[in-house]
Design brief:
This is SGNH hydrolase-type esterase domain-containing protein. It comes from marine metagenome. InterPro entries: SGNH_hydro_sf. The structure is a single chain. The chain has one domain: SGNH hydrolase (Rossmann fold, 3-Layer(aba) Sandwich), CATH 3.40.50. It has 7 helices and 5 strands, in the order H-H-E-E-E-H-E-H-E-H-H-H. The strands form 2 sheets. It has a 3-stranded parallel sheet with strand order 1-4-5, covered by helices on one side. Strands 2-3 form a two-stranded antiparallel ribbon. The longest helix has 18 residues. The two termini are about 20 Å apart.
């Protein structure tokens, strides 16, 4: 939805894969940025960091059955600090998009964890002077309307709502 809303107004580039957890970001950030000149970078990591994995690498594994969080919050904060330091080298206007809520019943993720990870991310963004685009609050307030039940993903209409908000923030940053 964001791409369609910005068509003819900006050149929008998205990484060619799911950004995954911050550990993947650290491995891939240089390749994703390339040698291009960036004006605005709107970014997020979180939902893949806070998810639980099984002892044999099983995705979205219950902590009640021995699952472990993919990236512990202390490591997440350190990783995010390193990623932000790298992004700042681009001299682009950086906009952090906080992590959206985990609805009740979501597999391998737990209600309230995004709040904790957002608090860690907020410390990083404050240290670096980076503004936060708050999609957590909008998503929380409209969860039943725009999110799939027991799922961190959105309905088609929900994706359009979020995409519209992201497009607005990007256009404002380019003024």
């Amino acid at each position: 939805p964001t791409r369609a809303l910005l068509k003819g107004k900006v050149n929008l580039h998205r990484i060619p894969t799911n950004g995954g957890p911050t550990i993947k970001g650290l491995e891939q950030i240089d390749a994703w940025l390339g040698k291009k000149k960036w004006d605005v970078i709107h970014f997020n990591w979180g939902l893949h960091d806070l998810k639980y994995m099984g002892p044999k690498g099983e995705n979205l594994f219950s902590k009640e059955k021995g699952g472990k969080v993919q990236v512990p919050i202390e490591e997440y904060e350190k990783n995010l600090d390193r990623l932000v330091a790298r992004l700042k080298k681009t001299r682009a206007r950086l906009i952090w998009r906080n992590t959206t809520p985990v609805p009740p019943g979501s597999k391998g993720r737990y209600v309230g964890d995004s709040i904790k990870y957002n608090a860690a991310a907020a410390r990083v963004m404050i240290r670096h002077g980076i503004p936060t685009h708050d999609l957590f609050t909008m998503s929380k307030e409209r969860m039943k309307e725009i999110m799939l039940p027991a799922n961190v993903h959105y309905t088609r209409e929900g994706s359009e709502v979020l995409g519209g908000d992201v497009a607005k923030v990007i256009l404002e940053a380019l003024k």
